[in-house]
Design goal:
heterodimer; A: mainly alpha; two-stranded antiparallel sheet; 21 helices; B: mainly alpha; two-stranded antiparallel ribbon; 2 strands
């Protein structure tokens, strides 16, 4: 279905136009630059809502497709090919939602080189949206690699004390995975003469042995990004050193590019290999869930705690996706959104206290509730959401994933889900432990006596996230409805592949 | 015969113009040598115009001594472009460094004519004449900054090792003549097919030619001269050397090995493959520890020679041949654009007496000269092979040829060493943006225009490479047929 109105192009490239204009604004007009960047990101959000309006939820196929020949050389063509379906729609919306929130969080946190910051931030937004919308493997790879560049600068210029180390580690780690994917992409393109994802899926017929290697090459890129245990060691460094807005986007969106990659490319392109490797992927996911939770418990630095909790939460997502049944995949997608909302909010919360106290050490706080009641209440809600309390979003996602994993034929054993459930309990322990040490107990540190509670801007950055935390927690049906047809179609294809695997 | 002269008109223009320029320069007063530079550029532009008009002609001329085809025309365009920008990079630099001599421009034109001969060579003797015409003026140019000892050292080192390498080529040609009683590429193929060639001698001759040209393009283990020569030579000369001399060497290498020795491919392809592997690994690993930007880019140029060399074993598979040659040509062009730009930034930051050449001297460039620093970021990303840049498209093209030939291991080495290269290219970016400092760049019009143009080309051709793809794919077919 070819779309006449290029809404996806508009969504993707509005931030680019914004970044170009930001570069032309006078360097010293800090507030003008901030308001302009915010306006651009809000326009992008508005455009993504238009996209939502044009989207037909009952149609499982790719929609609003735009396709023009981009590069033609020899026997193959590379297309500028965008499209959206139930698998990517929510992630696009999550991205366009988190970008303005992150920008709003930088108002007082970023004082230096604001112009460069906003330009890089908008470029990053473009890259991420491109990743979620691209349907041509070459185009996808261009966006995928491109996101490294602005993120590298965001960490390296505006980060903490070890920012250069963290920035280079982030870049090299993620590039290591993606270059293997690049070879696999070239190989696929050479075989088929096209880089178009839908055409490659329709072609199918990749021998199982080859699928295995191609699966691993793609998985190298995505597993590092997610990150799956044991490839996660870049994440704590990058998170701890990144500025708050960078962490929000890193956790909220960039990590989802990894899980989305598995969903969009690995599962449909290499279904037999996915079925065969599902137990192994599930095993790594469960190790990640437990390992991330255990390490989180041991952290003194709140930001590091949240970073490691991401390893645990994304383990759930991976477990859900590789359950390879509709429940698991839907839970996985929803949990991607949930993690973006909850962990994004947690990083904002950590950033707010860091701006006031310039430390993130849990032991430096205590009894904060008495001086900052609004902050305490909002943190409590987000904490409960992150640990999966019923009635809030995290519960819905994790519960659906566990249901999917219990019943999954592909991963073959209920033990995976059993151990993963243990992760939910561990999450409750480390999250509540952190909350208790920071907010409850006596207010015994002098520096904490005079802390100011949140101002209106800070509350405004958190409220939209809280709205969705409650909405998904209490009435998730609209969200499931958006993805269900596409997920059913994907899992039907996977079921067929499962029958083919001996 | 007359039409033969017409077919090689660009070569005649460049060589003739170089000789005239030597004379004309006598009448240009000292201190105004920019006029000589302008005249030289006009000659190059004229040759460029003729090349573009003639693009697409395909035939041997002068009884097969020279070959006119898309391959040679593509490379001619590359050489002429590199020459033009070697002039714009040098113009203010020579004045600033007190090196303003008219010889720079005429020597440059002689070098270019030598490169063009190598690209057009249909005979091993022609290849040798081209190589010497390329090399000898370049030795002089490396020593242009005399009496600076580094420059003299650079020239002497380049000369001694270069002469040694040339002698390998002569010896190789002699052996091939002994094996086939001809030096014509077509004759060698015919002799090999007819079975009249002595196989052992022929192979030994081919290996000696590989050594000699391997020296020119700086592949391991014939790369030892590169860092010292690149560091000592005046920076615009280095820029031209790293782009032009490399392209000239590859022009001869691909031409001779794919046209004259396809029958020996099972013997040389594995050797070349391993040379490429070792070059990519060593060039990139050694670059990591460099603190001088000229040495860093020198090792980077060694590494890139390794990437380009991957095309040769890939092209040994006749099915993949044209694709691999096109990919190598595209890569050479991409490398030329990116590298000229990067060297331009080096020229802008170089102070008197070798100051401003440490990577640490780039600290704070992002703040003080944002556009220059942004261009350098683009060049570094392009050299790494990160999109959106022409370097990424070039690597994509090259790896697709390598994979198409089934050399998966080679492609793996290629991407993994690219990862290593990211470490040192990014270090330059880190220093420019993430450290504060007092980086000082000259504000010279021609220089900044060149850097800006290269940056724009790096980005735009990275996003819209189709025209260059088309040209390269039309140039990829090497054939002896008239």
């Amino acid at each position: 279905m070819q779309s006449s109105f290029p809404i996806l192009t508009l969504v993707t490239f509005t931030p680019l136009v914004g970044a170009a204009i930001v570069l032309l604004l006078p360097r010293e007009r800090l507030n003008l630059i901030r308001w302009f960047a915010l306006a651009v990101s809000l326009v992008t959000f508005g455009l993504s809502l238009v996209m939502l309006g044009m989207f037909d939820p009952s149609n499982p196929d790719l929609q609003l497709v735009e396709r023009v020949t981009w590069i033609q050389v020899g026997s193959w063509t590379i297309d500028y090919h965008l499209g959206v379906d139930g698998l990517s729609l929510l992630l696009v919306l999550l991205t366009t939602l988190l970008v303005p929130i992150s920008i709003l969080s930088t108002w007082t946190a970023v004082e230096e080189r604001v112009k460069d910051f906003m330009a890089f931030f908008l470029l990053l937004a473009m890259g991420m949206l491109g990743v979620f919308l691209a349907l041509d493997l070459f185009l996808f790879y261009v966006f995928w690699e491109f996101t490294l560049v602005p993120m590298y600068f965001l960490i390296g210029i505006w980060g903490g004390t070890r920012r250069m180390y963290a920035a280079i580690k982030f870049f090299l780690y993620t590039m290591a995975g993606s270059i293997l994917m690049l070879l696999a992409i070239i190989w696929l393109g050479l075989q088929a003469g096209t880089f178009s994802l839908p055409e490659l899926i329709a072609r199918g017929s990749i021998p199982a042995a080859t699928q295995f290697w191609l699966f691993l090459a793609f998985a190298a890129a995505f597993a590092i990004k997610v990150p799956m245990w044991p490839l996660h060691s870049w994440l704590p460094d990058a998170h701890v050193e990144a500025p708050t807005a960078g962490s929000v986007i890193l956790a909220g969106v960039l990590l989802k590019m990894g899980t989305y990659g598995f969903l969009r490319f690995n599962l449909p392109l290499f279904p037999e290999a996915s079925v065969r490797l599902a137990p192994w992927m599930a095993l790594l996911a469960v190790i990640g869930i437990l390992y991330g939770a255990a390490v989180s418990y041991a952290q003194k630095d709140v930001k590091k705690l949240v970073a490691y909790s991401s390893v645990s939460h994304l383990g759930f997502v991976m477990l859900g996706l590789f359950a390879l049944n509709p429940l698991g995949i839907q839970g996985g997608i929803l949990q991607m959104i949930n993690h973006g909302l909850s962990t994004g909010a947690l990083f904002l919360i950590v950033g707010m206290i860091y701006e006031r106290r310039h430390t993130r050490d849990v032991d430096a706080f205590g009894g904060l509730w008495k001086v900052m009641p609004v902050y305490g209440a909002l943190t409590l809600i987000v904490t409960l959401s992150s640990m999966g309390l019923p009635g809030l979003n995290g519960f819905i996602g994790e519960f659906t994933i566990l249901l999917g994993a219990f019943g999954s034929e592909a991963i073959g054993s209920p033990w995976f889900a059993g151990f993963a459930a243990l992760g939910v309990i561990l999450a409750a322990i480390y999250m509540l432990y952190m909350f208790q040490k920071m907010f409850l107990g006596p207010l015994d540190k002098d520096e904490n006596q005079k802390l100011k509670d949140l101002n209106v801007r800070e509350i405004v950055t958190l409220v939209p996230l809280l709205v969705f935390i409650f909405w998904i927690g209490l009435y998730p049906k609209p969200f499931f409805d958006l993805m269900a047809p596409a997920v059913d179609q994907l899992s039907a294809a996977l079921q067929a592949a499962a029958l083919a695997v001996p | 015969m007359g039409s033969d002269f017409l077919a090689i008109l660009p070569l005649i223009i460049v060589a003739g113009w170089a000789s005239l320029l030597l004379l004309a320069d006598l009448f240009v007063p000292p201190g105004r040598k920019g006029i000589t530079g302008l005249l030289a550029s006009l000659g190059l532009l004229a040759a460029l115009g003729v090349t573009i008009v003639q693009f697409g002609a395909q035939r041997p001329v002068f009884d097969g001594m020279l070959l006119v085809d898309g391959y040679a025309s593509f490379l001619d365009v590359l050489f002429l472009f590199a020459g033009l920008f070697a002039i714009t990079l040098a113009h203010d630099y020579l004045k600033r460094m007190g090196l303003e001599r008219g010889e720079y421009y005429s020597l440059l034109l002689f070098v270019i004519s030598g490169m063009m001969m190598m690209a057009h060579a249909g005979d091993l003797i022609m290849l040798f004449i081209g190589l010497e015409t390329l090399s000898i003026p370049l030795y002089v140019m490396a020593g242009l900054a005399r009496p600076r000892p580094e420059s003299e050292e650079s020239a002497l080192k380049y000369f001694l090792l270069g002469a040694f390498a040339s002698s390998f080529e002569v010896y190789g040609i002699a052996l091939i003549f002994g094996a086939t009683s001809t030096t014509r590429l077509a004759g060698i193929v015919a002799a090999a097919q007819a079975g009249t060639a002595v196989p052992g001698l022929l192979l030994l001759g081919a290996v000696l030619i590989l050594v000699s040209l391997g020296f020119k393009v700086a592949v391991v283990p014939f790369h030892m001269w590169t860092p010292d020569v690149y560091q000592g030579a005046p920076t615009p000369v280095t820029a031209f050397m790293s782009v032009g001399a490399k392209a000239g060497g590859f022009a001869g290498l691909l031409r001779v090995f794919l046209l004259a020795f396809p029958a020996l491919a099972p013997s040389w392809a594995p050797v070349v493959l391993w040379v490429a592997v070792v070059t990519m690994i060593w060039g990139n690993v050694a670059a990591i520890v460099q603190s001088n930007i000229k040495r860093l880019l020198a090792y980077s140029s060694i590494a890139h020679a390794g990437y380009i060399l991957m095309a040769l074993p890939a092209a040994a598979d006749p099915r993949v041949g044209p694709l691999a040659v096109s990919a190598a040509l595209f890569y050479l062009f991409a490398y030329a654009i990116t590298n000229l730009g990067a060297w331009g930034v080096v020229v802008a930051l170089e102070g008197s007496e070798g100051k401003g050449l440490q990577v640490d001297d780039y600290a704070g460039l992002g703040q003080r000269h944002p556009w220059l620093a942004l261009s350098m970021v683009l060049f570094m990303l392009s050299l790494t092979g990160v999109p959106p840049s022409i370097g990424f498209v070039a690597k994509f093209y090259l790896f697709s040829a390598v994979l198409d030939a089934g050399l998966i291991g080679l492609a793996l080495v290629g991407v993994l060493t690219s990862l290593i290269s990211a470490a040192y290219y990014l270090r330059v970016v880190v220093v420019m943006y993430m450290r504060s400092g007092e980086a000082h760049a000259r504000r010279e019009g021609w220089l900044h225009a060149t850097v800006g143009l290269m940056a724009a080309a790096t980005l735009i051709l990275g996003l819209l490479p189709t025209p260059l793809f088309d040209l390269a794919s039309r140039a990829g077919l090497l054939s002896l047929a008239p």
